[in-house]
């Protein structure tokens, strides 16, 4: 079974030279908590997330690249919104036991990908169940498994706080990180070309 193949590449609608590249393990992501979001006091619950997890389209923001202005205009849309954050590596470490061919296989539970569609800000990403969750399971067992994963996911996020208590990056910091992203793409491209050239002349 395949797990989270889309994490390895950017899914920015304008290509790899735009945005900030694949979401890295050491990043933090931000989940917007609206008035109608299910919660348990100051924390998320398994009911806080939507069915978008099934299509790996649950929207999150990449904390390092998201200014307060962009958050308020592109994500909050003028609503009174609170936030909670999580370390990407902690989300990617979540596991689930899936029964396949009479055997139990321990697989990745949740993927976090760089998904930027038209209309999204460049700091947009998505998360959802890995491709290993679901095949061969009955609807009843699949529902129970997804519920357990959502609970684990909720426990990975921090305490919910008002958005004005969050330390937002400045615009000039975003520009520097954008330049670093372009440099990474260029370095990877040059490295692949050199490897191809070297292999040709061996």
What report would you give on this structure?
- By secondary structure, this protein is of the alpha+beta class.
- It has one domain (5-169).
- It has helices spanning 68-75, 88-92, 139-156, 171-200; strands spanning 11-12, 28-33, 39-40, 43-44, 58-62, 82-87, 95-100, 103-108, 110-113, 115-116, 124-129, 161-162.
- The strands form 4 sheets. It has a 6-stranded antiparallel β-sheet with strand order 9-11-5-2-6-12.
- The longest helix is centred in the last third of the chain and has 30 residues, at 171-200.
- The protein is flat and about 50 Å long.
- The mean pLDDT is 87.
Looking at this protein, list some descriptive labels:
202 residues, alpha+beta, two-stranded parallel ribbon, 12 strands, 24% strand
Task: Describe the secondary structure blueprint for this structure.
Layout: E1 11-12, E2 28-33, E3 39-40, E4 43-44, E5 58-62, H1 68-75, E6 82-87, H2 88-92, E7 95-100, E8 103-108, E9 110-113, E10 115-116, E11 124-129, H3 139-156, E12 161-162, H4 171-200
Parallel strand pairs: 1-10
Antiparallel strand pairs: 2-5, 2-6, 3-4, 5-11, 6-12, 7-8, 9-11
Brief sketch in words of this structure:
Helix content is 30%, strand content 24%. With 202 residues, it is of the alpha+beta class.
